[in-house]
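User: quick one, sequence for these tokens?
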């Protein structure tokens, strides 16, 4: 049982530290997480270059966060599955595949959001007026 703390902020600070450690583990150990972070940074740069509005920033922030969150949950599920099922098992495979599907679906949603925001602006810049 967890001891009671007189100062709850110590516990919250520790929780924040654990979360930051999780981010470090995610980015250090998962190539896909680093690729998604890089893609998010490129989207932010593109948004700044195109001068998108506040609503577009909100949408992009949400989908970037969603993809990174999905990647973190996928990684956590993979770690737990590997812990509880070190031998190959059909259900372990299925759990990992479904978690990976969550990342894929979040990524496709982010791609669609980016296309709705960026394609019209890019087409105006690249296609000749006429």
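Assistant:
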């Amino acid at each position: 049982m967890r001891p009671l703390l007189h100062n709850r902020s110590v516990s919250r600070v520790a929780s924040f530290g654990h979360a930051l450690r999780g981010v470090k583990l995610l980015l250090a150990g998962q190539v896909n997480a680093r690729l998604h972070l890089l893609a998010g940074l490129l989207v932010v740069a593109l948004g700044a270059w195109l001068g998108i509005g506040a609503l577009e920033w909100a949408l992009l922030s949400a989908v970037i966060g969603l993809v990174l969150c999905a990647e973190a949950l996928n990684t956590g599920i993979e770690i737990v599955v590997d812990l509880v099922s070190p031998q190959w098992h059909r259900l372990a495979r299925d759990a990992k595949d479904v978690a990976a599907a969550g990342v894929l679906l979040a990524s496709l949603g982010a791609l669609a959001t980016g296309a709705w925001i960026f394609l019209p602006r890019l087409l105006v810049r690249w296609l000749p007026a006429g």
